[in-house]
């Protein structure tokens, strides 16, 4: 179960590889998506956003690994 603000699909977007999971929304949600090419072009021009996203990705992956190890 994802919580508000949680990143999903970060592995696929950062590696430009196919998605490895399916996400189902159970309530009204606002989502944002971008192709790897578009995102990388944007990040190349905006260092501060790239740093913030990299930090968020690190935290997200750490939490997902913790959860996987608890199961």
Structural features, described:
The protein starts with 9 loop residues before the first helix and ends with a helix. It has 71 residues and is an all-alpha fold. The protein is globular, with a radius of gyration of 13 Å. It is built from three helices and no strands.
Strand proportion, as a percent range, falls in under 5%
| Rg | 13 Å
DSSP summary: helix tally? 3
Based on Cα principal axes, name the global outline: globular
Straight-line distance between termini: 13 Å
By DSSP, the count of extended strands is: 0
Helix-strand category: mainly alpha
H and E order: HHH
Largest sheet: none
* Mean pLDDT reading: 84
User: Considering DSSP H and I runs of 4 or more, what fraction of the residues is helical?
Assistant: 55-70%
Query: Which regions contain 5 or more consecutive residues with pLDDT less than 50?
Result: none
């Amino acid at each position: 179960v994802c919580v508000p603000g949680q990143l999903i699909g970060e592995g696929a977007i950062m590696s430009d590889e196919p998605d490895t999971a399916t996400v189902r929304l159970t309530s009204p949600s606002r989502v944002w998506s971008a192709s790897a090419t578009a995102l990388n072009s944007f990040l190349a021009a905006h260092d501060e956003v790239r740093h913030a996203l990299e930090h968020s990705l690190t935290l997200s992956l750490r939490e997902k690994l913790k959860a996987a190890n608890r199961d």
